[in-house]
Amino acid sequence: MLVIRRIVDRRRAYTGIFLPGEPPRIFPTDDVQHARILQIYKQDKRYPDVLNDFTDFDLQRPVSPPATER
User: How far is it, in rounded angstroms, from Cα 36 to Cα 34?
Assistant: First the structure.
């Protein structure tokens, strides 16, 4: 399974590409470059025997907690 993740530290943003049995490939990218990588590799629909973490595992973006009133 191919995993592509955005990694951000205080100074720079990176794209990480992870494949089982291979060393991780992590390289600096800006938002446009990362979006293009996702566009190339992102699945457009379900395929037999292909795991898609947005459909099969029902993962969603984290929701920020509401601001507390003082």
Answer: 5
- For residue 20, give both structure tokens: 């089982």
Using the predicted structure, report yes or no on whether residue 23 has a pLDDT greater than 90. yes
Determine the 3-state secondary structure of 28 from DSSP: strand
Q: What is the rounded average pLDDT of the residues 21-29?
A: 93
- What pLDDT does residue 37 have? 85
Rounded Cα–Cα distance for residues 58 and 28 (Å): 28
Kindly report the pTM of this predicted structure.
Answer: 0.57
d(CA 34, CA 63): 22
Residues composing the chain? 70
The structural domains of the chain, with segments of one domain joined by +, span 3-41
